[in-house]
Amino acid sequence: MELIHIAVIGAKPLLEGIRARIEKSISDQRDKGKSPAMAIMRIGKDPASEFYFRAKLKKGSELGVETRAITMEEDATPQEVQERLDQVVKDPMIHGIIIESPVPHHLDYKKIVNTIPWHKDIDGASYENLGRLMSGMPSLVAATPLAVMEYVSSLEIPQGSTVAVINRTITVGRPLTQLLLNNNYTPIVCHSRTRNIRELCKASDVIVVAAGKPGFLGQEMVSRDSIVIDVGINSVNGKIVGDARIDEIKDLVKAVTPVPGGVGSLTSTLIFSNLIQAMDYQEELK
Amino acid sequence: MELIHIAVIGAKPLLEGIRARIEKSISDQRDKGKSPAMAIMRIGKDPASEFYFRAKLKKGSELGVETRAITMEEDATPQEVQERLDQVVKDPMIHGIIIESPVPHHLDYKKIVNTIPWHKDIDGASYENLGRLMSGMPSLVAATPLAVMEYVSSLEIPQGSTVAVINRTITVGRPLTQLLLNNNYTPIVCHSRTRNIRELCKASDVIVVAAGKPGFLGQEMVSRDSIVIDVGINSVNGKIVGDARIDEIKDLVKAVTPVPGGVGSLTSTLIFSNLIQAMDYQEELK
Predict the structure, then answer these.
(1) What is d(CA B206, CA B31) in angstroms, rounded to the nearest whole number?
(2) Would you place residue B5 in the very low, low, confident or very high pLDDT band (cuts 50, 70, 90)?
(3) Which strand ranges, in their side-by-side order, compose the sheet holding A66-72?
(4) Hey, which of A161, A280, B169, B252 has its CA 20 to 30 A from A84?
(5) Do A241 and A214 touch, CB atoms closer than 8 A?
(6) Using a CB-CB distance cutoff of 8 angstroms, which residues of chain B are in contact with residue A136?
(7) What is the DSSP letter of A56?
(8) Which of A11, A16, A59 is closest to A262 using CA atoms?
(9) What percent of chain B has pLDDT over 70?
């Protein structure tokens, strides 16, 4: 890898490419007489869930894709939720389903999401999708790890490179590890218990930081060759910031992605990429 | 970690502990009026499959556990296999099912194994078990990664330690990575495309080698602090050898597991540990 300083790499050019790709796919589907549509189920009034819910509806209307909002009351019973979901699952006009999380405490998100067939689970949250991803089989994958891979691919990071992933959750670190392996990278999965995280990060070609702690990653964890992909989204004094101290490291590393305007700005669009992928899988399964 | 040279650590004491644990569990199940039983389905005449098939039958008879052999002809159709399997799945007296792999070319192992309910899939091969493992939920896990974890646990390797895993298959490296994360270790998943595998191994606290290449790991990849867990099983001139050049490294590292008499000697027993685990899951699901 050459030692060129790329500095801060915003998502805008990437986003334009992804959007063009999706628009082309939507148009191809329409040529086949199919109209992509997703259902977004929202139960109760969690404010974070509200934010992402609205972002998806907005993105859908921009792309001309039907996003059917299914809202249920905070006190909906498990049976009521399941009956409603079963109707949606059976609807042949709906190609992808999202359950906004978190759901109210008396409901079991995992249980609900695992009743969606894998090829309609566009959040990639079901056990079957996770197992398929792990097996390198056709699957749907959560949008955040996909967004990281869009960066990895656009930066032309050589196969075999080491990628320190600071996150071991089921929505980010674990599926990302599988995508990295499926694409011939060498993941190092770090977390709060990792003993020598500074050295591991410093020696890695890429650092994906999703510690959920503002200011977590600074100069002590990077080298001149580091590419830092910041997945953190933290609210500090009413401002959204990432996990990296970007002002401190931006001139010390090869490249760093900004927050906002980096990984997070790709995810709501990539959900629609998953929707098109889901339509293709459903066609193949016929 | 102290710098004590432990040298070659055979599986015998470990195996005795595991066996005692299983015998106790079997006896507990019998006290509840239950008699553990597994079905092992073997289709066709693959010689490797024959070897493992017989090893499990033998181990079952030693432990006093019923192992029902279900053999089908090489030319069995997918429908015939599925019908036979469906009967076994429905049998309430059978608590665990294994499909010996490889199956004949005209059959799809993944498809067959994914029709077994997760709580009877004691090889941990179904998507649901893999997804559950990844999610840190109750699951059944393949015997080889479990055997590695038995070593990790018996050697009291501190949490947070780095573990270089040289394998990214769905039966060894990938589930092992999940077990390591679930137990607070830091996995570094290496494979044929990894660029700096020597340095990564040398700097890791533990090296799990499953490259499937005799003599793959030697002095250039280890340090005085290394603990080497050799998962390789290779036949060289009629002799079974591991992936590590054990004579070369045994006095240079902290510890190394032998082949034969190491990881591989635990697996056929751990299948029975999974069988007991499966019975407990089935009880909870009632």
Answers:
(1) 40
(2) low
(3) A66-72, A37-43, A96-99
(4) A280
(5) yes
(6) 170
(7) H
(8) A11
(9) 98
Cβ distance of B189 and A168 shorter than 8 Å: no
Q: Spell out, as residue ranges, where chain A has pLDDT lower than 50.
A: 1-3
Q: What is the pLDDT of residue A11?
A: 92
What ipTM does the predicted assembly reach?
0.96
Q: Does A1 touch chain B (CB under 8 A)?
A: no
What residues of A are in contact with residue B160 (Cβ under 8 Å)? 193-195
Burial of B284 (0-12, 13-18, 19+ CB in 10 A): exposed
Is B108 an interface residue toward A (CB < 8 Å)? no
Give the distance between the most distant pair of CA atoms in chain B.
58
Q: Which of A135, A163, A169 is the best mutation test for B, with the most CBs of B within 10 A?
A: A135
List the single residue in A with minimal CA-CA distance to B168.
A181
Helices (H), A1-92: 12-31, 47-63, 78-90
CB atoms within 10 A of CB A69: 14
Q: Which domains, and CATH codes, for chain B?
A: 34-123 (3.40.50.10860), 142-263 (3.40.50.720)
A180-221 residue pLDDT tens: 999 999 999 999 999 999 999 999 999 999 999 999 999 999
Across chain B, what does the average pLDDT equal? 95
For residue A46, the model assigns a pLDDT of 86
- For the segment B261-284, the average pLDDT, to the nearest whole number, is 97
Give the pLDDT of residue A49: 81
Residues 186-245 of A with CB under 8 A from B: 186-191, 193-196, 199-200, 203
- The predicted structure's pLDDT at residue A1: 41
Residue owning tokens 């691919």: A153
Are B142 and B171 in contact by the 8 Å Cβ rule? The answer is yes
CA pair distance B210, B218, nearest whole angstrom: 13
The candidate with the shortest Cα–Cα distance to B255, out of B223, B210, B220, B214, is B223
